[in-house]
Amino acid sequence: MSIKQLNATYIPQEDRVLFRLTTHPSDEYRLWLSRARVAELLSQGEQAAIVKLQAEHPPQQAKAIAEFKQQVVQQTTPFTQFEPASRFPLGNEPILVHALRFEQQDQQQTLHLVLAGQKTLSLKLNDDLLAKLRLLLETMVDKANWGLAPKSGASPVPAPAPGGSSKHADRPDADEADPASPGGSKRLLH
User: How far apart are CA 98 and CA 120, in angstroms?
Assistant: First the structure.
């Protein structure tokens, strides 16, 4: 499964993040992420980025390099419109993520999301996609006012330029202002 887009929307009525991802060839997965899962994903995602670098650098240097790479992603990643897919392998309704874990495989991280019914959705993330996922979730934490400060000390995410759309693979999406969900916040990264 090749990831095409990542999308997140904070839904105040649920106090959760609706996380959607699309893949080639046009599958869409819809998941609920609670505050606890978002915090866990941010923490483990940061650690995954550092651990990979520790194979070639001392721990402090690996951490500094990981932080620098994350800041570059924050400054260079454009936000665009989400393009829904046509098929829903897990159904139309979002499924709650109960647990998650990262696993290093070759040069990629695999994110295992444990869902209801003991199903697991596994996503292979290269460094760039992992950094964009972290950026997306940090943006949702800010919108939700959950008080989960990014551990990397990264600066706040700038607001995206209005409009814009792109169909590049391995680029996450975050929505800003969803008219369909009053009071909801969305950001698209593409």
Answer: 10
Q: Crossing angle of helices 127-144/59-76, nearest 10°?
A: 70
The kind and range of the H/E element at 46 are: helix 35-54
Between 43-57, 106-120, 125-139, 147-161, the lowest mean confidence (pLDDT) is in 147-161
What distance in Å separates the CA atoms of residue 139 and residue 176, rounded to the nearest whole number?
A: 10
Tokens 């951490």 locate to: 63
End-to-end Cα, the chain, rounded Å: 18
Would you tell me how many other CB atoms lie within 10 Å of the CB of residue 106?
A: 7
Angle between helices 35-54 and 59-76 (to 10 degrees): 120
Query: Residue 12 corresponds to which tokens in the numbers above?
Result: 């105040």
Cα gap 13→88, rounded to integer Å:
24
> How far is Cα 121 from Cα 100, in angstroms, rounded to an integer?
9
How far is it, in rounded angstroms, from Cα 171 to Cα 190?
4
The C-alpha angle 180, 189, 106, rounded to 5 degrees, equals 130
Phi-psi region of 86 (alpha: psi -120 to 50; beta: other; left: phi over 0): alpha
In the chain, the amino acid numbered 38 is: V
Question: What's the rounded mean pLDDT across residues 103-111?
Answer: 85
* Residue that has been written with the tokens 């008080």 in this structure: 147
User: What's the pLDDT band for 59 if we cut at 50, 70, 90?
Assistant: confident
